[in-house]
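[agent] plan:
  1. take the single chain provided in the ticket
  2. run structure prediction with default settings
  3. attach structure tokens to the ticket
  4. add a short note for the reviewer (M.T.)
[agent] executing step 1
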Amino acid sequence: MQNAGPAGPAPSGGNGMDDDGAPGEATLLVSEFPPPPSYHHLAASLTPPPIPKEALERGTLRAAAAAARARAEAERIRLADDADKTDAILGGVPANEEEEEADGDVVAVFGEIVEDPMIVQPLDPCENPRIVGNEIKRLNQQVVE
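[agent] step 2 finished; step 3 output follows
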């Protein structure tokens, strides 16, 4: 036995065999990369589907209409306007009520309606990035002068 002492063979890491098959030395394992999967060539040739721009525009308009309705409802509640409630109770439909689009006409990403920022016009000037950018430039020029 190699490296044998009074207590027995010396401890070693690995499987206890060297290149010659002798105990006491670790064996170096060499591995190769596996071959590419069979679908690799097919996946490389695929292209993503086109962006549904019409559906995106419809979804943006619908989201803008929903946001406008939410703002109007919040304002109505804030002002405690009960006229719309009495009209609905009496059987009338409010004049500003819009028709809902059919389900499935909206583009949603992870469950959220997608808005196209080029279609929606901001109601608050602070929401428009151009106005905000111009104001920041003006203030920076004012500080520098």
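[agent] step 4 note for reviewer: The longest strand covers residues 108-109.
[agent] ticket updated
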